[in-house]
Amino acid sequence: MSDFKIISPDVLKSSMMNNMEMVKQLVALFLTQGKVDFETLENAVSEKNYLEIASKAHHIKPTMEYIGASNLRIQFQDLEQKARNKASIEEIEEAFAILKRDFNTAMLELETYSTSLAEA
After folding, report:
1. Which of 17, 53, 68, 104 could form a disulfide with 83 if both were Cys (CB 3.0 to 4.6 A apart)?
2. CA 68 to CA 39: how far, in whole Å?
3. pLDDT digits over 51-83, tens only?
4. Rounded distance between C-alpha atoms, residue 34 and residue 108, angstroms
5. pLDDT bucket at 2, cuts 50 / 70 / 90
6. By CB neighbour count within 10 A (0-12 exposed, 13-18 middle, 19+ buried), where does 51 fall?
7. What do you get for the CA distance between the two ends of the chain, in Å?
């Protein structure tokens, strides 16, 4: 399981009390809803809407802990703070670009993990 660089299946299982049915449901939910939520965040960044950036980053942030992506949670928190503090849009866009790359990696890892759960 050390193939994962961002998510942690062990943390994911632990946060779902090792209930593999709940793990499967959470992963499936996040693969669909997480993408939708992230898209709304991306739209907020492109619209330079500070309030919406902070709100969406705040909304997504806790889920990162459930999937064992603590560093990603910190990135969402950083983006939220930048928006709340009205940092330059360039600074926000730069932070978002890194966040987007890591979020997409996490989604790929979740898809891989989901496939392994389905095969188990």
Report:
1. 53
2. 21
3. 999 999 999 999 999 899 999 999 999 999 999
4. 12
5. low
6. exposed
7. 14
